[in-house]
Every structure is written in C-alpha cells, then in structure tokens.
C-alpha cells in the first residue's frame, strides 16, 4: 500500500469532473488516460505518441489509428499540426 503514496498525477478539476460524463469506449478511455499521464503527469503541453506506443495500454497498432482518429473526430483530443503530438481538448470540456 505504501507505493500508492509515492506520487500522483495532478489534473484540472474540469477534466476530472467531465471525463466520466462523456461516452467513450474502453480503448478511448485508455488513450485519454495515457495522454493525461504524458501531459499533466509529465508537466508537458503535448504528448508524443506513436501508434506502437499504445501497446503499453493494451491497444494493438492495428487498432491505434482508429482509436486516435475517433477521439480527434469527436474533438476529445487535438493534434499539434501534423505532428504525432496530442493533448486533451480543454475547449471541448468547457
């Protein structure tokens, strides 16, 4: 139980309060949580993701593109230009 006290990811209340209210698939939730960890958890504005990196959250590279495109289409996440950098769309949550 001591391991739970070693750190935390601090996210804004508006994100923590709104995420449970939007209808996401299990895969989409895992990608959103990974992006939250890589942005707010690492104190960065953007998370650099390669589709094969999503294997860490049990998403096969063959499904990764579909999941990311779905989140982009629903404006839950946004992309930094044409790069492989993503973040939570805070405007969507407003």
Architecture overview:
The chain is mainly alpha-helical and about 90 residues long. The protein is built from 4 helices and 3 strands; from the N terminus they run H-H-E-H-E-E-H. The protein has helices at about 15-20, 25-40, 60-75, 90-94, and strands at about 45-50, 75-80, 85-90. A 3-stranded antiparallel beta sheet has the order 1-3-2. It is globular. The protein starts with 12 loop residues before the first helix and ends with a helix.
As an assembly, this protein is single chain
Unreliable sequence segments: none
N-C termini distance: 36 Å
- The SSE string, one letter per element, is HHEHEEH
Rg, Å, rounded: 13 Å
What is the number of E strands?
A: 3
What is the overall silhouette? globular
On the 0 to 100 scale, the average pLDDT is 89
Individual helix count: 4
Strand order of the largest sheet: 1-3-2
By secondary-structure content and strand pairing, the structural class works out as mainly alpha
Portion in strands? 5-15%
Q: Mind describing the biggest β-sheet?
A: 3 strands, antiparallel
Q: What level of helicity do the residues show?
A: 25-40%
């Amino acid at each position: 139980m001591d391991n739970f006290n070693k750190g935390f990811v601090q996210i804004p209340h508006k994100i923590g309060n709104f995420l449970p209210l939007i209808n996401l698939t299990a895969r989409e939730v895992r990608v959103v949580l990974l992006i939250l960890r890589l942005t707010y958890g690492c104190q960065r504005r953007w998370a650099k993701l390669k589709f094969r990196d999503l294997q860490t959250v049990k998403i096969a590279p063959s499904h990764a593109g579909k999941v990311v495109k779905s989140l982009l289409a629903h404006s839950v996440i946004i992309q930094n230009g044409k790069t492989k950098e993503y973040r939570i769309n805070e405007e969507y949550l407003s």
